């Protein structure tokens, strides 16, 4: 490597290091702002443990137990359907080796103080979910997410007595625009949902405020790192889903 190339590489590395330092410095200052913000979380604020939380196997009893033993109020599991309409715990198309939905409902029946976010990935046989929920007496413990525009009719028809959040892809560039936010409010209301469920990267205080003004809940996913936990908490949503419920639980205690 000749001298000119060495100098160029050194300059590039110096710029990269300097830029990284500025980034983390600004990030640190912002986190302190979020920490010191005057925030009052909703009285019924909840932490949801994403399935597979804390490096456990997704849709397993270990994941459920790990979540509730580390500060989560709600556990999450995914639901798919076998070709015969049997609901199973799976994120992707099932192979037939997955646990049946009864496995999760039996867990809830034995933990009556725990609620569950049933993240549906298909709507093949929704009435069977409500039938099983009634059989295991967990109707008051469950609600749906994963409900996009294409799932709304099947969910409301097949499980009329189970509440749901509407999953929405919020446009980040418009997430502070009141007219746009009010349009989202109407969309959620028209779907008969209790609130909105969306990715944390589009979260804003303005969105949370507009939804609360309209009596709707705000659930934000999936917030895993400390900086974004402080940031999203500063918006005072109703729920945050995370793979690290222990960390989020510790931070939440700072706001109480």
Q: What letter string, H or E per element, gives the SSE order? A: HEHEEHEHEHEHEHEHEH
Number of strands: 9
Strand order of the largest sheet: 1-2-4-5-6-7-8-9
Main beta sheet: strand number and arrangement?
8 strands, parallel, barrel
> What structural class is derived from the secondary structure elements?
alpha/beta
DSSP helix count?
9
Low-pLDDT windows of residues: none
Give the rounded overall mean pLDDT: 91
Strand content: 15-25%
Overall shape: globular
Roughly what percent helix?
A: 40-55%
Give the terminus-to-terminus CA distance. Answer: 58 Å
User: Whole-number radius of gyration?
Assistant: 21 Å
Explain this structure:
The structure is a single chain. With 256 residues, the chain is an alpha/beta fold. It has helices spanning 3-35, 61-68, 101-109, 126-135, 152-158, 178-190, 205-213, 226-233, 245-254; strands spanning 46-49, 74-81, 87-89, 115-120, 142-147, 164-167, 195-199, 217-221, 239-242. It has an 8-stranded parallel barrel, surrounded by 5 helices. The longest helix has 33 residues, at 3-35. The radius of gyration is 21 Å and the shape is globular. The N and C termini lie far apart (58 Å). The model has no long low-confidence stretch (mean pLDDT 91).
In short:
Helices cover about 40% and strands about 20% of the residues. With about 260 residues, it is an alpha/beta fold. Strands 1-2-4-5-6-7-8-9 form an eight-stranded parallel beta barrel, surrounded by five helices.
Write out key terms for the chains shown.
single chain; 256 residues; globular; alpha/beta; 9 helices; 18% strand
């Amino acid at each position: 490597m000749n001298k000119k190339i060495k100098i160029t590489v050194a300059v590039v590395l110096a710029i990269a290091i300097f830029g990284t330092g500025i980034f983390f410095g600004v990030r640190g200052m912002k986190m302190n702002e979020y920490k010191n913000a005057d925030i009052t979380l909703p009285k019924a604020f909840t932490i949801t443990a994403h399935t597979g939380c804390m490096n456990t196997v997704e849709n397993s009893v270990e994941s459920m137990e790990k979540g509730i033993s580390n500060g989560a109020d709600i556990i999450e599991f995914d639901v798919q359907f076998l070709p015969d309409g049997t609901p199973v715990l799976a994120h992707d198309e099932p192979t037939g080796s997955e646990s049946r939905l009864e496995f999760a409902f039996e867990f809830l029946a034995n933990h009556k103080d725990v609620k569950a976010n049933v993240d549906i990935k298909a709507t093949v046989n929704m009435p069977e979910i409500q039938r099983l929920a009634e059989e295991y007496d967990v109707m008051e413990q469950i609600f749906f997410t994963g409900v996009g525009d294409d799932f709304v009719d099947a969910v409301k028809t097949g499980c009329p007595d189970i509440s749901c959040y509407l999953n929405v892809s919020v446009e980040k560039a418009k997430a502070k625009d009141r007219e746009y936010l009010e349009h989202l409010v109407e969309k959620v209301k028209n779907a008969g949902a209790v609130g909105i469920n969306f990715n944390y990267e589009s979260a804003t205080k303005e969105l949370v405020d507009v939804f609360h003004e309209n009596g709707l809940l705000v659930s934000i996913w999936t917030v895993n790192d400390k900086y974004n936990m402080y940031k999203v908490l500063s918006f005072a949503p109703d729920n945050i889903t995370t793979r690290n419920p222990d960390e989020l639980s510790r931070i939440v205690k700072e706001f109480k």
